[in-house]
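so my prof wants the structure for this chain in the C-alpha cells format not the other one, which i didnt know existed until like an hour ago. anyway here's the sequence
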Amino acid sequence: MLSSEVGPLLVALHPLLPSNGRGPANGTAIFAQMVRPLWWQKLTSHRDFTVTAYAFQREKVPPEARLAVDLLQGTAPTIPEHYRVRSIGLSHNLAQRGVTLIAAPDRLAAYTLLRDIDRQPMLLLRIESPRHLWQQAELTLRLWLVVTAMVGTVFIAGTLTAIDWLVLSRLSRLQQQVQELLRGQRQRLGNHGTDEIAQLARTIDTMREALSYRQDSQQQTEEALRLSEVKFATAFQVSPNAIALVREDGYLAEVNASFRELTGHERDEWLEASPLAFSFLPRSSRVRLVRAFRQNPSLSNVELEVRCPSGELKTVIFAAEPIQIENVKYLLCVANDISDRKQAELETQLLLSLSEAIGRSPDFDGALTQALQQIGHTTGWSYGEVWTPTADLGGLECNDARYVHQTGLTAEALSAIESFRYFSEGMTLSRDEGLFGWVWSQARPYWLPDLHLATGDTLLLRRDLAIAAGFSSCFCVPVFAAHLGHEAIGDLPSVPLAIFCFFLRGLHPQEERRLELVCQVAAQLGTALKQKQTEAELRALFATMDDAILTFDAQGYCLKVAPTAAAAGWATAWTGKSLREIFGWQYEQQFIGYIWQALNAHHPLKVEYALALGDRQVWYAATISPLADDTVLWIARDITDLKQTAEALRTAKNAAEVANRAKSEFLANMSHELRTPLNAILGFAQLLGSDNQPGQDWQESLNIINRSGEHLLELIDDVLEMAKIEAGKVSLNESECNLHAMLDTLREMLRLRAESKNLKLQFYRARNVPPFVKLDGVKLRQVIINLLGNAIKFTHGGSVSLRVRCLAEAPPYCRLLFEVEDTGAGIAHTELGQIFDAFVQSESGRKSGEGTGLGLPIGRRFARMMGGDLTAESIPDRGSIFRLHVYVQTVAPPAQAPAALPPPLPQASTLRILLVEDNPDDEALTLRALKRHAFAKQIVVVRDGAEALEYLFGSGPYVHRDLSINPHLILLDLKLPKIDGFEVLRRVRNDERTCYTPVVVLTTSDEESDRMQSYHLCANSYVRKPVDFNQFAEAIGQISLYWLLLNETIGVHTVAGLVVVLSGIMLANGVLNLRRMLFAPAPRT
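here's what i got, hopefully its the right format
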C-alpha cells in the first residue's frame, strides 16, 4: 500500500519470471489500484499499530527483522531469550505464517513473508503494536478459560445426574430383565415411553419374541430332524436297494438288509471285514469301479456285476456319493439289482430280432434256420441243431438247420464238429427214444451240464460222438405252437413244432441266465414259427383254392386279394380299385349294400349274385364277413355249374318230396287205424288157439293165423318206425337204465330161441362196462334185439356172441362198443354197402323170405341219434360182425326208497276191475279174456275219460255210487274221447282215494314219448295193442304178486286163483317163468 500524490495506491506484483531471491526481478508484472480514502482513513486511524514493508534483503532490515527472516526461513535454531514472547495465546514458532518478537519492553513486532507466485520471498511485512494489548487479550483468555471450566463442571455434573436417572437406572433394570431372559424367563420388559431406551426395550421385546419363536422353531426342527433320522434309518434298512456306508479307511460303517441279502454275509461279518469293502465284486467289476472313483468320487448309473453266495452273477446299477455325518466323511453306496430287467431286455431284443428274421424267411425251414442262428449268436454256444416231428408224428428227424460258432475254434475242432454234424444228418428217432423223446413226452427243457454223466445211450444216443467233438454240455428245449404244458391231444401229449438242441464246449459264469433266457424265448417263439408254418400252409392252400378271397373297406375299395387259383392274373390289378372300377357302375350300389349289411349285422352275410362276363352269365355264392368296423372279407365261389345242376334237379326233387312227404305222413298217421283191427284178429286167434275142444287141423290153422298176424304186426311196426324217422318224429328219450340187468334179460329172452336151433348163445361183458347209465334204453334194446335176432335167424350152426366193452372214458361219459358176431353164411362184399339202405336185403335175407329190410337202417339211425354208429364186417361162409358204438352217461345206482303199502288185493273172483275203452271190439276182446280167467263178476266198462272220472269220484250218473267200493284195477286206454287217458291217469294219481289203485295202460300208440309220459304219471304197466295176452297177464300178475308179497292179509284162495289165471294164459305158449315173475321189480308208483 503506497501513498501517492493522487491518493493511496494498492500495488501488487506478479513476477513473470523466476525471482532471484532478492526482490522483484526483470519481467515482473506490477499492478496498482487506487484505494478509496475511507478505507485508508480507517486503516491509519489505528495509531497503536505500525506497518512497515521491507524488500526482502536481509542486510537492509533492522536486526530483529533479520532474526525474523532467519526464523521464517528456518536458518535460526532458536529465539534469543530477550526476543522470546511468553504467552498462552501466542506461538513463538510460526515459520510458515509468521513470527512474533519483543521489539521493545513495551512493544511487540510481528513479521511475515510475502511470497511471489513461485513461492519465493518477496517482501517482509512488519507490524508493531503495544505490548499491553497482548497482555489484555491474554487475561481475557485466561478468564474465559476459567469461566468455561466452571460452567463445564456444573454442566457435566448435571448431565451425569440426569443420565443416571434417565438412562443408567433404566439400563440397569433392562440389564436385569435381559439376564432373566437369558435364564429362560420370557416375561415382557414393561418399559414405556418414546425415548431411545423405551425404543430399545421394545426392540429387546421384539428380539425376545423372535428368540422365543426361534427356540420353538428350533425344537420343532430338532423333532423333525429326529423323525427324519428315524425315517431315514427305517428307509435305509427296508430299502429294496442294497445300501452301504463306507468310511475313509475302507471299512464298512453300516449296511442294510438288501445289501446283506445281495452279498450273502451278515452285518457283523461286514463290519469286521477288511478294508476291501468291495470284495464281493468280481475282479473286472472292482477294476472298473476303482477307475471310476479316480475320475470322480461321485458316481451314478455305473453298471457292475455282483457275485451272489450261490455263485450266480447279477447285474446292478451302482451309485456313490461322498457325505458327512457329524463331521465324519463317508461314502454312501447304493446298488440296484437290474438282473431281471436286463434279462427282459435281452429277451425282448432277442424276440424282436427273431421276429424280424422269421418274417424275412420264405418258409418254415428257413424260419427255423434264422431262429437257430439268432439264438446261437446271442448265447455264443458252440453248436446248435433242430429236430422236427415226422409226417406221421411218430418220431423226430434231424432238420437241415445248423449253427456253428467258429470263433476261437481250431481246424481240428471244426473238423470234429463237422463229423458230428455229418453223423446226425438224416437221422430219425422214435418219439420215445433218447433225450428228444424225453423232452417231447415231458414237454419241458432238459439241461445236461456234463455229458459224461449221461448213462449209456438211453438218455443221449450221440454222447460219445459229442464228447469226441469237444462238447461238454447239452441243452434241449421244445417249441410249441402255444404253451400247453402237459395238455393232451387225445391220448397223446402235445406235438412240438421243433426241438432245439445246443452243445457247449465250456460253461460260462452266466450260463444259467442264458438257459433261462432261451427257455423264455422258446416259450414265445412257437407263435411266430406257427404263424410262418401257417403262412406256408395257407399259400399251398390258396394255390389249390377255386374261391376268390378279397378284402374291401366300407367305401368299396379293394384292400387285398388272396393269391388263390381263382385270382390268378388279376389279383394285383384289382388291389386299390373301387367296386365301380372292378365290376362296373351297375353292380356298385348292390355290392356296397352287401358290405354295409355285414358291417351293421356284425355277423357273416351269405349272398348269391350273377355277373355278366362277356356273353355269358356267371353265378357266384359269396360269404361277406366283417373283419373290423370298416373292413369285410369277401369270399366268392363260381356256382354256375351247381346252379344249372340244381335247377335241373329241383323239379324232380320237388315231386319226389311231395310224394315222399305224403307217404310218410300217411304211414305215420295210420298207427291207430292199422292196430285196431289187428288187435281183434290176433286176440280172437289167441283165444281160439287156447281152446282144446276143436280138432288138430283147426288148432294148426289158428296157430298159422296167429303167427301171420304177429308177422304182419312186425312188418307194420318196422314200416311205421322208418316213416317216423323220415318224418323227423323220432327223438331220444333218455332215462337211467340198469345196463347189466338189460343184458341179462336179453340173454334169457333169446336163449330158448338159440337153443331151438342148437346154437350157442354167448354174452361177454367187460369189467369196465358201467352198470347204470343214462340213455334211451328202449332204442338200444331194439337195436340189440334186431342184431341178435338176425344173427340167430341166419346162423344154422355154431354160435352167436355179444361182446360189450368200454372203449374210452371221460367221466361222466363213456363210449360203449357192442359187437354181435355169428358163424353164419356171411354177407358178400358187394352187399355190405347196401344192407343199411331202407327196404334192401342181402341175398340170405331174400332167400329166407322174412323181414322188410328195415331193421338195420333203423338200427343205424338210432345209433347215430345216440352219438355213435352201426357198422358191419363179413366174410362169406365164415360169418359176420356188427359193431354198435354209442355214447352214454354213467350215473350212480338209484336209491332204494321203501314203497308205500297199497291196500290188500282180494280174491280173483271178487277183484273189481274198471275197463276204460272206447272201441267196442277191443272192449269185447278184453272182457272175454277177463271172464275166461275168473274176472267176470266185478268188471265195469266206461266209454270215455269223462265217464271214467265220474264213476271214480261219484259225479254225473254215478252220483249215488258208494265211493268206498272202488275198483282194485284200472285198465285204461289212452286214445279216449272228451278227456284223454293221460288226464284221467293224472287225476287218479292226484286223488288220495285212488292214488294207490293199479293202472295198466292199453294203447295202440307206438310213440316212445307216450310210454315215457305214462310212466311219468305213475302207470303200473304199459301194454301196446294188439295185446299180447302173455304180456298182459304178466303185467297183471306182477301187480298181484307185488301185493301178495307186501300184504299178509291176502288169503290162500287169492294166490291159488292168480296161479290158475296165469297158468291158463301162459302155459299154452310155454313161456311161464314163475321165478322171474315172483322176483320182478316193483311197479312204478
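also thought this was worth mentioning. The chain is about 45% helix and 25% strand.
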